[in-house]
Structure formats: C-alpha cells, structure tokens
Recover the amino acids of this structure.
C-alpha cells in the first residue's frame, strides 16, 4: 500500500470498538425519530418526505406528457390539464427542487464536513422540518380542494381573478419559505462558527461552499417571495387590487417581485447541485479539484449576480429597451461563472484516475446537460432571440435541462455517492449504471424535442396544440416514459439495498472527502473521542504534500 | 444556412426581423451544440485516458496556471458578450417602429384577438396586413395578461390590461401565418389563436375597399367604423369618431359590456346608483359633468380613474359625444360570445 493509503482517513476513529451506536440505531421508537434534533435523522426524514413530493410531482408530469400524445384532448379536459401542469410546477419547485439538496444532503453532510457534531441550531432545524410538513400539507390540501390553475408563476391579474383555489397554496409556499430561511440561517452560522481545527475557509469542501452560497441566497431572497405570495393571496381573497389595473394596481409589479425571488431561486436549486458534483468528480477521479478557488469564487459570483438578472424573464413584458439591455448583459455573467465551474470540473479529471462508478456516470450526463442547458439559458438572455423563444417550449426545455438535467442528475449522483454513508449499505453497481443510463437517455429523448418544438413556435401551457407539433410531442412523451422507468428502477434497487444490500465499509469509495473520516453510517455525534483535526485539504490524493503557496488566484 | 434552419425546426421566415435575427439564432444554437459536444468529448477522452489502474492510485497535484485561469474566464466572457452585442443590436431595431408604420390596434381578451384599423374595418381573430409595409401593433388587454406571438415573424409582446404595449413587423411574404397567445390566460388559453393574412399591396387595398362597402348589418362593426362618417356628419356621427379619438373607448364600451367605466349603451336616461347611495338620472347635464369633473358623481362599483377632459374637448365636441351616447339606446348588439371583464367590483360596506 502506498503512503497515501496508510494516511487514508478511512480508518475512522469510531470503527472497531462499538460503544457508540450509529445514528440509525440510536433510539428506535417513532418518538425518537419525530422529535430528534440530530441533523442526520432530520435529513433522513426530509429524504423520505421530499421523495414522496417528487413522486407526486412526477405523476403530474407524466399526466401532462400523456395528454400531449395527441393535439386535441387525450385523457383530460382543459381545466384538469391547467391544474395538473400548475401542480407539477408548484410541487417540483417548492416541495422538491428548492429544499432537496440543502435539506437532505446539506443537513446530513454539512456538519460532518466542517467537523461539527450538529448544526448550530438543532431545534430550529427540527422546526424547519415541521414547517416544511405544514406548508406542504397546506399546499397539497389546496391542490386537492380546488387546485390552482395559474401556473407555478401565479401571474396576476389572472391569479387574483381565477375561480380556483389559489390562496392556500400561496400561504403554503409562504410557510415553506420560512422553513427554507431557517435552514439557510443554520448553515451560515454553522459554517462561520463550527469549523473544526484545521478547516480554514479555503479548505472547506466545495459542497460546503455551495451550501453556504445557497444559504445566503435563501436568507436574502425568500422574504421577497413571502411578501409577494401573501400580497397575491390577499388580492385573490379580499380583492385589495394591488396588482389589478382596473383599480389602479400594476400587474407587472407582481412579475418584478416574483422573479426577484424566483430567479435567485434557480441558484438555490442548482448551486448545491454544483457542490455535489465538485465532490463526486474529485472522489471518483482521485484528484484535488482543479481551480478550487475559482469554483468557490464563482459560487459566490453566481449567488451575487443572480440577484440582478430577474428582468430577463420580462424582456417582452413591457420593460424598457435599456432595462432589457442591462439585464441581458448581467445575465451573460452568470454564463461566465457557470462556464468557469464546468472547465474546472473537466480539468479535475485531467491527470486523474477515473473509476467509472454510478455517481460518476451521473456526473457524465450532468456535464453535457449543464453545458447545453446553461448555454441555452445564456442564449435566452440574448434579448432579440428571447423575443421568439419567450414562453415557448424552448424555455420549458431549457429550465428542465437545468432543473432536471443538472439539479436532478447531481441529486442522484449525491444519493448514490452518499448512500453508503447514510445507510451503511451498498446498492448493486450494475443496476446503478442501468438506472443512470435510462435516466440520461430518457432525459435527452424527453427534452431535446421540446427545444425543437419551442424553436418551431409551440407555446408553453397549451392544452391543445396545432398538429405540426405532434411528432415532437410524441417523442418527448416516450422519453418521459423512459425517464419514469429509470426512476422506478432506482427506487426498486435502492429500497432493496436498504435491507439486503452488502454492508458498506466506512469508506467504500476510498474518498478523501472530509465526510468519509467518520463511520458509515456515522454515530449520533459524528466524531467520537477528542475533537477531530483536519491537517490536509479535502480530496488530496497526491503522495507529495500540497505546495503551500499555490499559484491559484 | 437552410440546412441549419431545418435542423433547428425554425418556422418559415416571413418578416424582415425574422431574416435579421435568424442568423444569430443559428450561430448561438450551433455554438451551444458544438460547445456541449466539445466539453462532452474532452471529458470522455479524459475518462478513458486517465482511467483508474489501481485501487489506491495517487495522482499528481495539479492546479491551473494563471494563463489557464485567464482563458477559462475570457473565452466564455468574450463569446457571451458577442452574443449580447448582436442580440441587443437587433432588439433595439425591433423595439423601434419606423415612423411610416401603419397602425393597427389589437385588443386581447379571454380568449380572442380583436383588430381595429384607425380608418378601416374591425376584425376578430384575423389580421389583414399588406406585405412590405411596416405595421405597428398597439396592443392592450381587457382582462388578464396575454402575449401576442407570430412565430413566422419572430415577434412577441405581452398584452397587458391597463397599459399599451407595441410591437411592429414588416411582412415579406404573402401568405397566412399563425398568431398564438403565449401568456397563460386561463381555460381556453390554447384556443386563443388567430391568423395574420399578408396580402400583396394591391390586394390589400381591394380588401380594405371591400370591407368598407361590406355588410353594415353587423352593427358591432358599423358602430366603431368611423370611416363611414362623411365630413359633414351629424353630431352623433361626429361623436362616434370623437369617442375613439379622445380615448373614451379605452374604458367605456359601445357593445353593452361593462368595462373600467360604465358602457355607453343604454346609458342615457338610465337611473344610476351613485357611490354615496343616492341615485341620479343620466341626462345631458350628467354626461357633460362626468367629462369635465369626473370624480364628482361616481357610479357605484366603478373606480374613480377617469381623467378630466376640461380644456381638451371644446363644447361642440362635448355635445357631439353626448349626442352619440344618446343614440346608443339599446343593447341589442351585445356580443354573446364574450363574457367581458372579470373584475369583481369592490363592495364598500
């Protein structure tokens, strides 16, 4: 064994002697789970709930795709269709994408990655879980009793005048937002105050950097959506007329406020995903990350610039030409920051030692999707082109490339990478690669035709569509079925692995990420014995010690 | 170029803007495709070239040089700035209608498009325009936000209640093209379709003439059709022209539907409940007062948003409008297809 293997932190201190139970078995009553303040148990509860939400959103998505098999009515009427696509959007954005990575992987790993026993405010953490449950419950109740038909964007004055039930869903979103703010606050304080000795800011795992950037966005932006959904709910219920031009209100004001949150929210969804990818690419190519500081700074760059691009959602909505130009040029910067990350991930593989395991297969798909999805996003920021693409399937395809192609692929990469960490068991590698292949191909078949349909002029949110778009829609639906098969496969083998999977060693990937220094699954307090010390930067796979003065930035 | 356009499923190119913007379209999308394939292939090559050979393999510690970092930042920056510059150039162009453009008013409402020509006929869901002549569309909505989209012209603009937005195009090829609503507007959003018929210049002139002679049975059109008014028209006819010119029709309708203000149909002689609770009979005096001091007596259920016309209309014009309103006695021309605005008036207790 080489020198690096002997210094491999896999030999976690807790292994071997058994006085400390793993967090999974430390307390087996229902109460010990529901009232747990252990960040890992909270993360697992989030995992179960958020995956259930994903299932609900996925079923809605499949219904939308099946409806589009024929240009006319297929399986439902127009009102049902309008509700179904609205609920697909609301569930996927607010119940799945926004909380998924921070609440599940952030909660589970961020304290371990900074060498802490828990987050800074464990009780607030539990409260945020219950806020999620309450908010999601209220929103789902609204969906069953009436169900909004406004689209997840709730544009006024339609949303304030529709006869469907909008208010409970909006209030649900408000409550979900409160949970998000608490999680963000918790992460910020944890990263600032609870880093173990040896972990300086520039030795933080990049997943922590990403979670930190996300948390800042969450804390700063979420109050704005809170404000706007409450005002819209009030307008809808009491007709106060804030967004109603007939009473002197301004419908476009809503769009400004809405996108002031919802654009940064895109980065709430993808930044943590970028963090996962930074970890996965290092671990599986056994390389220090190429351009660590560039990735860390670009994370902050995206988080910051993301606040100043909301106007690119409104190029055709009555914005001045100068406004459009300003928002367009700032949007280009987001593209630049994302490109920096992409180049550095590919650079990380250079000179590495790649083990093509399931998480790496997802990275592979992710890379293609993030470049294509990101560049089509930048293309949408080109004002003259957006005039044609705005509110067509091109936009739908673009943000699904980012939301599903990037965020979802990274989520799955993380789920597979950290599955042994979380549950102490291994899934079947062959099935894992099969699942990844199905998902990647299914994804391409689903969304590439949507780009073409959008180019061709097909507007989004159409219940019926002109016949010339049928072929593309049918292909897209077939892709969706493939995607569904992929998710179903993953669900099956992961649930099987929970009980029957091979027992995992503490560090089955031989990863040098900080989180692998503890047992898998970790004990309740993460690190037993004296406070851990982290002498090396994460993901150091070299025999030579890292040069102190890097010429990076 | 044609190959790429077909590859990318770009619709037919039928306006000057379409031919202007399509090259950028192709450039941006082809660059995107090449970049993603480029990154993908490089990555795949690396995966193969640097595959793991032993379990605990160590690797070299590599960090980027300043030159690499510079390239990582500058290459995408320059490319994206180029995109922006080209895009903004074209956008400014499409945002600036030429001065000689012909105007058409567009009204979007759930779920139809109405087109009115300043000196010509009205149309529902069919817009006739001449080829090779710039056409400016002045658009507003009567209920929720809609968006006016002609894929073949590559133009789109939201149509917003309470505001005017505009866009323009110059069609280059005679033919019939689709108009879609692209801002979700409720139940029949996907049926809010219309057609734009591009005619050769002389065909268009013929069409306009035909329309003017056309059926005056349709009182809906005739009411708003100011071209029928001869220069020596009577007061009511002058009034009919004036309500359009002075902007009354932005808030008041002549088809019996309530809009932002009360409809003109059947208004004269009606008993109206006022905001204070008392009632008033609408007569010449009240109509005139409403034009000059609009806030004095507000009919219950309507917002106090009307501007004063004091000094903007001289007395004969006021009289002409009063005469016109007096002529609209019945509501037998109500358009039953439309449900009208959906605003629920605030009930003040």
């Amino acid at each position: 064994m080489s020198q690096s293997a002997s210094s491999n932190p896999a030999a976690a201190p807790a292994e071997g002697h058994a006085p400390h139970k793993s967090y999974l078995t430390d307390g087996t009553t229902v109460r010990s789970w529901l009232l747990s303040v252990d960040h890992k148990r909270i993360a697992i509860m989030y995992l179960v709930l958020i995956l259930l939400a994903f299932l609900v959103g996925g079923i809605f998505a499949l219904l939308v795709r099946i409806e589009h098999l024929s240009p006319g009515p297929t399986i439902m009427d127009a009102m049902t269709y309008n509700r179904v696509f609205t609920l697909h959007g609301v569930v996927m954005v607010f119940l799945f994408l926004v909380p998924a990575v921070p609440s599940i992987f952030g909660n589970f790993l961020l304290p371990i990655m900074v060498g802490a026993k828990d987050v800074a405010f464990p009780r607030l953490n539990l409260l945020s879980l219950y806020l999620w449950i309450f908010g999601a419950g209220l929103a789902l109740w609204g969906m069953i009793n009436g169900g909004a038909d406004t689209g997840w964007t709730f544009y006024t004055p339609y949303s304030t005048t529709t006869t469907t039930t909008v208010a409970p869903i909006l209030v649900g979103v408000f409550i979900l937002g409160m949970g998000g703010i608490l999680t963000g606050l918790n992460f910020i304080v944890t990263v600032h105050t609870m880093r173990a000795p040896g972990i300086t800011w520039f030795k933080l795992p990049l997943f922590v950097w990403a979670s930190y950037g996300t948390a800042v966005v969450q804390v700063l932006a979420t109050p704005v959506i809170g404000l706007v959904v409450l005002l819209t709910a009030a307008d809808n219920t009491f007709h106060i007329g804030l967004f109603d031009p007939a009473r002197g209100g301004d419908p476009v004001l809503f769009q400004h406020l809405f996108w002031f949150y919802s654009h940064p929210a895109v980065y709430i969804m993808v930044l943590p995903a970028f963090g996962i990818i930074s970890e996965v690419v290092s671990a599986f190519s056994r390389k220090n990350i190429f351009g660590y500081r560039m990735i860390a700074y670009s994370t902050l760059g995206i988080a910051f610039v993301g606040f100043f691009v909301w106007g690119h959602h409104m190029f055709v909505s009555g914005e001045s030409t100068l406004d459009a130009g300003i928002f367009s040029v700032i949007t280009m910067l987001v593209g630049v920051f994302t490109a920096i990350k992409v180049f550095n991930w590919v650079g990380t593989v250079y000179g590495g030692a790649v083990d093509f395991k399931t998480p790496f297969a997802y990275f592979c798909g992710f890379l293609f999707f993030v470049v294509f999805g990101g560049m089509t996003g930048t293309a949408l920021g080109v004002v003259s082109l957006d005039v044609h693409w705005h509110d067509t399937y091109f936009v739908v395809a673009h943000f699904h490339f980012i939301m599903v192609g990037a965020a979802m692929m990274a989520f799955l990469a993380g789920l597979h990478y950290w599955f042994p960490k979380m549950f102490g068991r291994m899934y079947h590698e062959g099935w894992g690669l099969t699942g990844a292949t199905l998902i990647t191909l299914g994804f391409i078949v689903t969304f590439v035709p949507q780009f073409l349909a959008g180019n061709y002029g097909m507007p989004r949110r159409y219940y019926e569509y002109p016949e010339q778009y049928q072929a593309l829609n049918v292909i897209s639906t077939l892709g969706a079925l493939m995607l569904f098969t992929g998710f179903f496969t993953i669900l099956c083998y992961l649930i099987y692995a929970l009980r029957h999977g091979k027992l995992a060693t503490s560090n089955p990937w031989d990863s040098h990420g900080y989180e692998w220094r503890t047992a898998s699954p970790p004990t309740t307090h993460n690190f037993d014995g004296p406070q851990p010390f982290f002498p090396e930067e994460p993901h150091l796979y070299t025999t030579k010690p890292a040069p102190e003065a890097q010429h990076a930035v | 170029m044609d190959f790429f356009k077909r590859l990318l499923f770009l619709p037919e190119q039928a306006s000057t803007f379409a031919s202007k913007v399509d090259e950028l379209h192709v450039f941006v999308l082809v660059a995107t495709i090449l970049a993603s394939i480029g990154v993908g292939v490089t990555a795949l090559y690396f995966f193969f070239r640097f595959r793991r050979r032993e379990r605990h393999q160590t690797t070299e510690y590599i960090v980027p040089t300043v030159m690499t970092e510079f390239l990582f930042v500058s290459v995408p920056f320059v490319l994206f700035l180029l995109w922006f510059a080209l895009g903004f150039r074209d956008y400014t162009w499409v945002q600036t209608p030429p001065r000689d453009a012909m105007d058409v008013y567009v009204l979007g409402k759930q779920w139809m498009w109405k087109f009115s020509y300043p000196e010509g006929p009205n149309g529902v869901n069919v817009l006739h325009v001449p080829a090779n002549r710039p056409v400016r569309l002045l658009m507003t909505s009567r209920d929720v936000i809609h968006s006016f989209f002609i894929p073949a012209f590559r133009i789109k603009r939201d149509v917003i209640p309470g505001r005017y937005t505009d866009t323009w195009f110059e069609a280059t090829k005679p033919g019939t093209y689709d108009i879609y609503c692209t801002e979700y507007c409720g139940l029949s959003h996907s049926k809010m379709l219309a057609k734009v018929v591009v005619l050769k210049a002389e065909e268009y002139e013929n069409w306009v003439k035909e329309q003017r002679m056309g059926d005056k049975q349709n009182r809906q059109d005739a009411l708003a059709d100011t071209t029928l008014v001869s220069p020596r028209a009577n007061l009511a006819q002058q009034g009919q022209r004036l309500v359009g010119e002075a902007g009354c029709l932005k808030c008041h309708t002549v088809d019996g539907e309530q809009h932002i203000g009360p409809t003109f149909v059947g208004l004269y002689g009606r008993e109206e409940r006022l905001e204070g609770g008392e009632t008033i009979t609408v007569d010449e005096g009240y109509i005139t007062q409403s034009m000059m001091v609009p806030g004095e007596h507000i009919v219950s259920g309507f917002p106090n948003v009307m501007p004063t016309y004091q000094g903007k209309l001289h007395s004969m014009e006021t009289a002409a409008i009063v005469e016109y309103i007096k002529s609209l006695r019945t509501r037998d021309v109500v358009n039953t297809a439309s449900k009208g605005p959906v605003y629920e008036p605030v009930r003040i207790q």
Q: What stands out?
A: The two ends of chain A are 34 Å apart (CA to CA). The beta strands of chain A are 425-426, 502-503. The domain at 38-517 of chain A is CATH 1.20.210.10 (Cytochrome C Oxidase; Chain A).
